[in-house]
Structure formats: C-alpha cells, structure tokens
From TrEMBL:
The enzyme's E.C. designation: 6.3.3.2
Coiled-coil ranges per UniProt: none
Keyword Oxidoreductase: no
Domain of life assignment: Bacteria
Entry annotated with the keyword Nucleotide-binding: yes
Homology family: Belongs to the 5-formyltetrahydrofolate cyclo-ligase family.
Any one Gene Ontology molecular-function term assigned to this protein's record: 5-formyltetrahydrofolate cyclo-ligase activity
Pfam families: 5-FTHF_cyc-lig
Cofactor(s) the protein needs: Mg(2+)
Protein name: 5-formyltetrahydrofolate cyclo-ligase
C-alpha cells in the first residue's frame, strides 16, 4: 500500500464518520439549493444517483428534472471503466446494481451534460474524495473531452475537509451544493 493510498483511506474513514453524523441530523429539504441550481438548466441531460448508506439524497431533484428532460443514473460497467448512465424516470422498474445502488431494469443509456456527483469529502477548491474506484474521474475526463460537462458535487456541509489527498487524475468539481449553500468554482 502506497503512502497516498493509506492517506486516502484515513481521509475516507474520517469523512464517512462526519457524513454519518450529518445524515442523521439532516431534515427534509436538504436538496433545496440543488433544485435552485438546476432550475437554470431545465431539459439538459442530467445524471443523478440513487443514494446508498448515508449519502445525501438527490431523488427529489431528479424527479423535478425528469419532468423537463432526460435523467440518468450511473451504471458501473466494470473495474477501470467509465460509467454509463441508464435512463431513469420516477416509478421506473429498478434492480440492484454493483455496490448496492439501484439502477433501472432496462438498459437505455444516455450521455449527461450535467452530473450530480456523490462524494465522501470535498474541499473549497472543488476537490473531491470519492470511494476510490476512480469511476467518476474516468467518466468526467471522457465526457469533458467531448463537450463542456458540469460536475456538481452534492454533499452535506460537514463533509468539507482541508488538505484532501488528491492526485493529478482526480477530476475537479465545478460546483458543490450542500444543505447550507452553493460553492462555485469558475476557474476549472
């Protein structure tokens, strides 16, 4: 195990503990700021995610967005591969995907231009610490090579951290939305 791998593991452990506390304390309406941000992008292909464990839940915003345009959820294709995004609609039939996240039963893929990205920790520069598989980093790199792609980290404010152990391959977020507000990074 490299030093950076160990440092990232420790950073994840601490962040998971902070996220768990924030999740337990959160009330309804945590997605309000995200709804406001996305209101200016109605109809643009969007990817959300089906929350697992203590992730902040974007489902109310995904339901809102689905009334205006296509919404997808990430589907893991395999280790080392970018994500694909399966078309999701409120009430569609779901099945369990890798790591326990629910995905649509039918494979009907779309290419999002806006991604709501789950995370373990974030910093004030748009840095993101994920689960360690690199799926979103590979996916964002691929999508951004084709067209402008907006990556919005969605998290509890308590998931903010300083000095995240980041690597050159880590894709920056354009914005972070929490229950407390919005951080935007125009320099990416």
């Amino acid at each position: 195990m490299t030093d950076l791998t160990a440092i990232k593991a420790e950073a994840r452990k601490a962040a998971f503990a902070r996220r768990k506390q924030a999740h337990e304390a959160a009330g309804p309406g945590a997605a309000g700021h995200l709804s406001q941000v996305l209101a200016g992008h109605r109809g643009v292909p969007l990817s959300g995610y089906m929350a697992i464990r203590t992730e902040i839940d974007p489902l109310p915003v995904m339901e809102e967005a689905a009334a205006h345009g296509p919404v997808g959820v990430p589907v893991i294709q395999g280790k080392g591969l970018p994500l694909k995004f399966s078309w999701w609609e409120p009430g569609c039939a779901l099945k369990e995907g890798p790591f326990g996240a629910m995905i649509p039963e039918a494979d009907d893929f779309l290419e999002p231009e806006i991604l709501i990205v789950p995370l373990v920790a974030f910093d004030r520069n748009g840095g993101r610490l994920g689960y360690g598989g690199g799926f979103y980093d590979r996916t964002l790199e691929l999508l951004r090579s084709k067209r402008p792609t907006l990556a919005i980290g969605f998290a509890y404010a308590a998931q903010e951290a300083e000095n995240l152990p980041l690597e050159p391959t880590d894709q920056p977020l354009d914005m972070i939305v929490t229950e407390s507000g919005v951080l935007s990074f125009s320099d990416h």
